From TrEMBL:
Annotated keywords: Glutamine amidotransferase, Glycosyltransferase, Transferase
Gene3D superfamilies named among the record's database cross-references: 3.40.50.880
InterPro entries reported in the protein's UniProt record: Class_I_gatase-like, Peptidase_C26, PuuD-like
EC numbers for this chain: 2.4.2.-
Residue runs in coiled coils: none
GO BP term (any one): polyamine catabolic process
Any one cellular-component term (Gene Ontology): cytosol
Signal sequence residues: none
Molecular-function GO terms, alphabetical: gamma-glutamyl-gamma-aminobutyrate hydrolase activity; glycosyltransferase activity
Stored PANTHER family: GLUTAMINE AMIDOTRANSFERASE PB2B2.05-RELATED (PTHR43235)
Lineage: Bacteria, Bacillati, Actinomycetota, Actinomycetes, Mycobacteriales
Protein name in UniProt: Putative glutamine amidotransferase
Top-rank lineage group of the source organism: Bacteria
């Protein structure tokens, strides 16, 4: 291992857990589209995939012992029971595997927040972060905004113009606005404790949140409703996480050496 590789931060990425087909096999599987970890690699990080599994605080801490940063990735809708709501007919019906993933990611997030591990939430990840901090979700955006442009279906991403809030980490990374790839029929409703809105779209839909750094100095926790992994020609969000994770790794190393 070169000195350069040794300094690259390790980023954990959560994964799907559901039935999947490959060749002649049709099995329950943990998986993640490669573009997620390709983005981390291009930004200078090392990726580790985290399969959903039964978890408690001790297990979450043990997982995070080996990580410098965490990404909560996209996927199925969060179980509305996690934020005290009844399921909308358009919301994915919770099953055992999706509940396992919900619990796993919520526990990892709580541990990361407690330990100061940098976090990037992507699409579902933004929703999980909001729920973890006591917020709620709009379960079906067409009921709120009157159209389906945020999720056109058939795996076709729509492009939305996102306007950021000046002074936020998201604005510092992507500028006053950006063209984002979106595929979501849910979004943040009531904001979770300690979060601030850092971007929205022309419909007023919250498209990015982050932990208020005035209230939580030293915490790097950002979540976007869009899919930055779909635009690997723009690595600014991945680079922001990798940079924060490298700083966190350096701080951990200094504590160990003292």
């Amino acid at each position: 291992m070169s000195d350069c590789d040794a300094l690259r931060p390790v980023i954990g990425l959560t994964t799907y857990l559901q039935q999947a087909q490959t060749g002649v096999w049709d099995v329950r599987a943990s998986f993640l589209p490669a573009i997620y970890f390709e983005g981390i690699g291009l930004a200078g990080g090392i990726s580790v995939l985290l399969p959903p599994q039964p978890v408690d605080d001790a297990i979450a801490d043990r997982v995070l012992d080996g990580l410098d940063g965490l990404i909560i990735t996209g996927g199925r809708d969060v179980d509305p029971a996690a934020y005290g709501s009844e399921r909308h007919p358009a919301t994915d019906e919770p099953v055992a595997d999706s509940r396992t993933r919900d619990a796993f990611e919520l526990a990892l997030l709580q541990a990361a927040l407690r330990r100061g591990v940098p976090v990037l939430g992507i699409c579902r990840g933004a929703q999980v972060l909001n729920v973890a901090l006591g917020g709620t979700l709009h379960q079906h955006l067409p009921d709120v905004v009157g159209h389906t442009r945020h999720q056109q279906g058939n795996a076709v991403f729509s492009t939305s113009t996102i306007t950021t809030v000046s002074g936020t980490r998201v604005a510092e990374m992507v500028g006053p606005d950006t063209e984002a790839q979106c595929y979501h029929h849910q979004a943040i409703d009531r904001l979770g404790d300690g979060l601030i809105v850092s971007a929205s779209d022309s419909d007023g839909v919250i498209e990015a949140v982050e932990v208020d750094r005035e209230s939580h100095p030293g915490r790097w926790v950002v979540a976007v409703q869009w899919h930055p992994e779909e635009r690997l020609d723009d690595l600014r969000l991945f680079a922001g996480l990798v940079g924060a994770a490298a700083a966190h790794a350096s701080q951990k190393a200094q504590k160990v050496s003292v």
